[in-house]
Amino acid sequence: MTTRKQNTGIAAAVLGLAGGLFAWWKYKNASEEEKAKIKGKINDLGSKLKETYTDAEIKVKEAYDEVEHKITGNDTKKFKKDVEREVEKIAN
After folding, report:
1. Torsion 25-28-30-34 (CA) sign
2. d(CA 84, CA 7)
3. Residue 27: partners with Cβ closer than 8 Å, 6 or more residues away
4. Which of 23, 30, 44, 63 supports an S-S bond with 34, CB 3.0-4.6 Å?
């Protein structure tokens, strides 16, 4: 017996498959001009996706470098000295 979630998943899969088949049939029966137009849209979307990915990658790298600098920079040295002083106080 299937649950409601399983039925929803199955329905979504069937609808997705039907949509894909319809798109394939529509493309197969399209004129060369329509096919070129579709390919152009897909290429544009691919370029935008790649550009967005590259921008996100750069932002993540910059954020990582900033955090790494804070960790390995003067803040860490100061923190280490503070900890050493506290250890000295406790030890004495």
Report:
1. positive
2. 62
3. 35, 38
4. 30
**CA distance linking residue 56 with residue 50, whole number of Å:** 10
Single pTM value for the model: 0.52
Tokens describing residue 89 = 């106080």
Residue type present at position 72: T
Same domain for 47 and 90, yes or no, is yes
Domain span at residue 91? Answer: 31-92
Q: How far is CA 24 from CA 12, 13, 54, 90, in A?
A: 18, 16, 30, 74
> How many domains are contained in the chain?
2
Q: Which two tokens stand for residue 8?
A: 């929803």
pLDDT, tens digit, 9 for 90 and up, residues 45-92: 999 999 999 999 999 999 888 877 777 766 667 777 778 888 888 877
Residue positions counted in the chain: 92
Run of H or E including 29: none
